[in-house]
Amino acid sequence: MSKLNDLLQPARAGEALAAMAAVVGAAWLASDDATLERYARSTAARPTVPLAVVRPDNADEVAQLVAIASSHGLAVYPLSTGKNWGNGDACAVGAGQVILDLSRMNRIVLVDPELAYAVIEPGVTQAQLSTWLRERGLPLWADCTGAGPDTSYVGNIMERGFGHSPYGNRLQHVAGMEIVLASGELLKTGFGHYRNARTAHLFPYGVGPFLDGLFTQSNMGIVTRLGIWLMPQVECVNHFLCSVPRHGDIAAVVDALRPLRLDGTLRSILHIGNDLRVLSGGGVFPRAEVPAGARLPEALRGAMCKAAGVAPWTVSGALYGTGAQVAAARAAVRRALRGTAARPTFVTERKLRIGAMLARACGDSGIGRQLRAKVALGESLFAMNRGTPSGRFLAGAYWRRRGGLPQGFPAGADPARDNCGLLWVSPVLPMRGADLLAVHDLAQTVFWKHGFDLFATFSMVNERALGGVLTVAYDKDDLEETARARACHDELFQRVLEAGYIPYRAGNHSMAQLDPGGDTYWRTVARIKAALDPAGILAPGRYEPGAS
Amino acid sequence: MSKLNDLLQPARAGEALAAMAAVVGAAWLASDDATLERYARSTAARPTVPLAVVRPDNADEVAQLVAIASSHGLAVYPLSTGKNWGNGDACAVGAGQVILDLSRMNRIVLVDPELAYAVIEPGVTQAQLSTWLRERGLPLWADCTGAGPDTSYVGNIMERGFGHSPYGNRLQHVAGMEIVLASGELLKTGFGHYRNARTAHLFPYGVGPFLDGLFTQSNMGIVTRLGIWLMPQVECVNHFLCSVPRHGDIAAVVDALRPLRLDGTLRSILHIGNDLRVLSGGGVFPRAEVPAGARLPEALRGAMCKAAGVAPWTVSGALYGTGAQVAAARAAVRRALRGTAARPTFVTERKLRIGAMLARACGDSGIGRQLRAKVALGESLFAMNRGTPSGRFLAGAYWRRRGGLPQGFPAGADPARDNCGLLWVSPVLPMRGADLLAVHDLAQTVFWKHGFDLFATFSMVNERALGGVLTVAYDKDDLEETARARACHDELFQRVLEAGYIPYRAGNHSMAQLDPGGDTYWRTVARIKAALDPAGILAPGRYEPGAS
Known about the structure:
The structure is a homodimer.
Chain A: H1 10-24, E1 29-30, H2 33-40, E2 52-54, H3 59-72, E3 76-79, E4 98-101, E5 108-112, E6 117-120, H4 126-135, E7 140-141, H5 153-158, E8 174-180, E9 186-188, E10 222-229, E11 231-232, E12 236-244, H6 250-262, E13 271-274, H7 275-280, H8 298-308, E14 313-321, H9 323-337, E15 343-347, H10 349-362, H11 366-385, E16 421-425, E17 428-430, H12 433-449, E18 455-459, E19 465-474, H13 479-498, H14 520-532
Parallel strand pairs in A: 2-4, 3-4
Antiparallel strand pairs in A: 1-2, 5-6, 6-10, 7-11, 8-9, 8-10, 12-14, 12-15, 13-14, 13-18, 16-19, 17-19, 18-19
Helix pairs in contact in A: 1-3, 6-9, 6-12, 10-11, 12-13
């Protein structure tokens, strides 16, 4: 843990904070207990209490704050909207750092409808950009994740998150960053640093070393603006869902779909979820029917799946194009799955309308409820494919929360505020059925050993790899369960690392585990960090195993 | 210009070379005049004579050579196969450096047919990989450029070159590099530095800062191996060609095709070439009919175009997929172009066969020759779309060469050896017709001022930008013309820079122009360079404006 700020004399810290308040205005710097407590809330149950929270309005203020931090040897920790659920939320890696909350910087600086891109600040949320485009009738969609409407694009991109659409490999759809360095200088990547540059946000590489990647999953600078590419609306979207009736059959399905992902027939990011992942999106843990602290009994799990019509695995993805293109893709998917146990269903807008009508006609019968749930899910998926984020996919975070989903969910859902317990491990694996089963089995063994149900999603994050999301949902009001959840997470993190299925992302609690020791990669990163931030004031410990 | 090696005492240099020879074996180090002269040949007429050429066999030897260079303060300049035509060829930026020629390191380390990738060394050429795949009957294609069969993938990727196929944005299809650093350490990027990593070449980002971009267009390290993704063969490829009958009409064509590139209907890289670009691919400058040193008279240019059936602009690209997918794309292209002056022709294998038959039937008539030339072009394009490189697209480099194309062309074509004069400027512009015309006009003004014909290609390098390639072909046997060519190039480079159409790549002769001065980007690059290569021994001056 960085001890930078711990070593600061209180008087020096006070001086620095006063200088920072003078930059942003007193209203935008807080160090009262209520604020500090709010920022320290973490789904990961590893709260780090900051020294203060400061909320700049623009890059120039950020630069001034960094200069003050630098001259006082004070660590600052930037966050966009602080919704890094399960990986640290709004917490710094180390305690006592000054949180630079960039959420006030939420300008949509420009949108070019012809060339289909936007320039945005870190505070811009999924809902905000989506609404902005819709209200102006622009035929563009932004990629969405299931992390909820109020999450930041920049924050997610800096963590190299992925979404659902053909633009789901988000970092590949970014061009031109503006970054405040520890020196206080403003770095523009790509062509942006040239006067009059006409393609600052159209061609990411620029000329000379391509630096963007260096600022993702790192603590090398503070991104204050970036160009994000938007997807032109297409004539036709079909969502496709595919139930896999037996656990082991998913392997053949992955192998059958891989060629379609490889050859570009499937351009969006397919998600393959296990039964609990789907169940947890439509309900909460049946606490009353299960002994305290226990996981879901197999019989009850089976009954719940049966009642909801949920198979052991569900494949979910979308096809985009003209009517003819989507029809061609649909035929290719059907052909590919012919020899497998899976049968795809293609959800169209028409089907959704008919389904909704039928569900209403069936009233409150079992089949009516099941149909209604499916229609609601279909509508959310459809909306998300077309750039309208939904909070409903956050439901999984509430699975073991006492009291279940809050009133009005998903509006305003905030797992950290709502005291949800959530941790996850995200191994990357070759896009092969055998690897999926191997990682699933490894994870299930670890989860069961620690008494947890395994929520598993494997997403086709690119044409050759699956990104796993293996979630521990736990009851944060139960201290024993919380400790078990952490032990489960840590053991799985270590096990996938050893097995060569390295996580694509790490929570604040895992940074130290990233360097097995004596690793040239991490030594190189440390050298670059020392060159760009010699005093180590920017987010010490963030993707910096040696300092965390 | 780096003076590193100039300052070396001859005795120290001799000592270093002796130590290097001991590493690679005496046969693989040369400093005789013939060798030095061969490496100093440059299409860009800016030869830099090296101190010696050393040819290591593997990364371990590279590391040892770097250690020797480091301890002696000797600059080394790595190259893959040294075919960076028009941008420096096999020359270092500065004279007196030791060329590290990596062409012996030409192992295809592995090919995974299921996950469609290869791991290759710098010496692997386009022809080598293509042949390897074909001979083993693997249903995979590697992206090709028109730079010829003997060019290196790694070399081109490090320069961020682009090809033609859906994998033509080459850097996006690379995962996992191995890099010898100035410290002699071997850095593995992505997940490759973790023991047992299963996705070292399947997921480029890894975890932590994503470093790959830092090593492209830079002098931060020596890439000795990388993972390159291969394209699965598809059922159907159609090449599409589109003649644009009047110069100004190209603008509307670009604007009509942009939405198809944006929405993924056109997944490969379209190339838009002017008449001279197409003419120069099928013949040489009619030297006998033109006054010495003059450019092509307009009337003659018109007559040549008419004889060859070449329009002011030709759009060329390929559609990939199943039969149904290609048919859907074809319909979309036809629909998009309906309101423009352009009519697309779709070249299929069947049409090529019939065309070849007809051409034979027409014998040596004018129409027969024209048809034969078109069939030959179509066949080369088709082969290239499917991963078989052709040397014929190098013909442009020979345009003004005395003696024209060498015997047996394109076999063994080597513009540097053959004393071709070639320089090019590669501005990136927004994918808009108006920008294409603006850059074309700007370039033509400069070219005509200096007495040169403009060879122009604009390629849809991604979904939003055009990469221009504006070539000065000149007679290197004519000193006055050579000086004019350089002046023309330099003026155009400066003009596009000022106009905000920044080049995506620079030749050895343009490195110093890249930094307008006081630029945070270049200052940041210099800081990173100093951290990774404090003695500045790796390729001083390469994308290092301050040192060149």
